[in-house]
Design a protein that fits this description.
single chain, 181 residues, mainly beta, 10 strands, globular
């Protein structure tokens, strides 16, 4: 009986560590060898279009949208002016100001982002993490965004974002970007 108690007492911390490790997710460095290398400034400078959807945790698509993006670089900062048109006819604008850091990471701000977004790139991937103020039915919620971008070719980018509140996923955003010539 003592052996079982000791095993159980030792197993609990091990199980908890394994569960926490499983929640950590993939590190962006995993994609370091993938091509083409994603250059945020090069891809988003000029005009880009995107099509996307929001799905609830169970998979139901509840919102679809189209985005027109104008990107410009000046003084070492990349500005992205995003104009959203949703399937219900509503519109939204978000203007990002993005700055590359000395270590190669990115910092970004926007009017509906709490503090700064932090991004890390490797190979064809970029991972952003930030808190977004999301208006829903007259209330505003702080949603944690775990945003992954993958460049497929010189004109195509796929984006998948997990949205969570209190550590629980509430939904996902999927976007397909097409660079305009």
């Amino acid at each position: 009986m003592k052996i079982i108690r000791r095993f159980t007492a030792l197993s609990l911390p091990v199980v908890l560590l394994l569960l926490l490790g499983a929640c950590a997710g993939t590190d962006v460095s995993h994609y370091a060898k993938n091509q083409p290398v994603f250059d945020l400034v090069q891809f988003f400078s000029g005009k880009t279009e995107a099509w996307g959807m929001f799905q609830k945790r169970g998979g139901e698509v509840v919102k679809r949208f189209h985005v027109e993006i104008t990107g410009s670089e000046q003084g070492g900062k990349l500005t992205l002016d995003e104009r959203f048109r949703y399937d219900d006819g509503t519109t939204q604008q978000r203007v990002w100001t993005l700055t590359r850091q000395a270590d190669g990471s990115w910092r970004g701000t926007a009017g509906d982002v709490v503090g700064e977004a932090v991004g890390h790139a490797a190979g064809n991937a970029l991972n952003w993490r930030y808190t977004l103020l999301l208006p829903v039915d007259g209330k505003t919620y702080e949603m944690h965004m775990d945003d992954w971008m993958y460049q497929m070719d010189r004109h195509t980018l796929i984006n998948r974002t997990s949205m969570s509140k209190f550590g629980l996923e509430v939904g996902q955003v999927t976007l397909f970007f097409r660079k305009q010539d």
